[in-house]
Amino acid sequence: MTLRTDWTLDEVHAIYNQPVLELVTQAAAIHAQTQATGEVQVCTLLSVKTGGCPEDCAYCPQAARYHTGVQAHKLLPDAEVLASAQRAKDSGSTRFCMGAAWREIRDNKDFDRVLGMVEQVNGMGLEVCCTLGMLNEYQAERLKQAGLYAYNHNLDTSREKYDDIITTRTYDDRLNTLEHVRKAGISVCSGGIIGLGETDEDRIAMLHTLATLPAHPESVPVNALVPVAGTPLADQPRVSVWEMLRMIATARILMPHTMVRLSAGRQEMPVTEQALCFLAGANSIFSGEKLLTTPNPDFDADKQMFALLGLKPRKSFKDMPEGATVLGRTAAVEA
């Protein structure tokens, strides 16, 4: 299947607004053509530095300006991070993601420590992902040299809605970070959040932006807002499964080789709703009891769901080109 990065906004609009069953059917057919159906990437996300963030993201309990009850802590000890990575691997995860509540990476001893964590977790045979805020070309190169497989930096919403949600960095700041990540040869992970008070047009515009980047992100997380008391969006209603299906199915059609991750909000979804999302083209999840600071299904619950639905975990490093390495790791390494 030919990959397109020249989608028009009208084309995305037409895809997204199909009758939902027709949309899911089309996405499922494309998923079967381009991906191994029944295979789901299992990722685990750990907050290695929590709270105290100077930004004003309206959804985030880690922003210092909001009173959300999140206890700030400095960068975790290496031993604690590595123990969490080992637990994740033992429980079936093949990608380990480390998040720090920073606005941007600074070239200091904390960044040096994160680089060491990346190298050690990569040495365990796990794909390593980080989400550390904005970065420059030099920092992206250092992460690549340490063995980083993927970098997450979400767009969050459309350019038009963005200033209603965040004022402490611009939309172009986010796009520039993605460009630095891509230039360094690191896998790009970028998606967004629905349920922020945006319109369908905002959701369509965000998907259009992602699908018309110079290359599609290798991973697109689709998050449903988890409202947190103390944030400006605390009273937002829960996103419905039908809204999630439209986002996931449209992302699958536009970006057929991308991993589409059913991310935040899954704690509130019964297995029947999650199964519909997998049918629509989702093939990645976060497993483990927390997503940074918000609740998430634990490993045992996900193992039961996989057994019920006949799903199997995706191997780590599966998408690496033949002969390519990340600090000695090669494609399709068994986790």
TrEMBL record:
UniProt keyword Metal-binding present: yes
Named cofactor requirement(s): [2Fe-2S] cluster; [4Fe-4S] cluster
Cofactor comment text: Binds 1 [2Fe-2S] cluster. The cluster is coordinated with 3 cysteines and 1 arginine. Binds 1 [4Fe-4S] cluster. The cluster is coordinated with 3 cysteines and an exchangeable S-adenosyl-L-methionine.
One of the Pfam families matching this protein, by short name: BATS
EC class: transferase
Residues annotated to bind [4Fe-4S] cluster: C53, C57, C60
A biological-process GO annotation: biotin biosynthetic process
Its EC number(s): 2.8.1.6
A GO term for molecular function: 4 iron, 4 sulfur cluster binding
Pathway: Cofactor biosynthesis; biotin biosynthesis; biotin from 7,8-diaminononanoate: step 2/2
Domain Radical SAM core: 38-266
Catalytic activity: (4R,5S)-dethiobiotin + (sulfur carrier)-SH + 2 reduced [2Fe-2S]-[ferredoxin] + 2 S-adenosyl-L-methionine = (sulfur carrier)-H + biotin + 2 5'-deoxyadenosine + 2 L-methionine + 2 oxidized [2Fe-2S]-[ferredoxin]
Family: Belongs to the radical SAM superfamily. Biotin synthase family.
Quaternary structure (record): Homodimer.
Name of the featured protein: Biotin synthase
Organism the protein comes from: Hymenobacter rigui
Lineage: Bacteria, Pseudomonadati, Bacteroidota, Cytophagia, Cytophagales
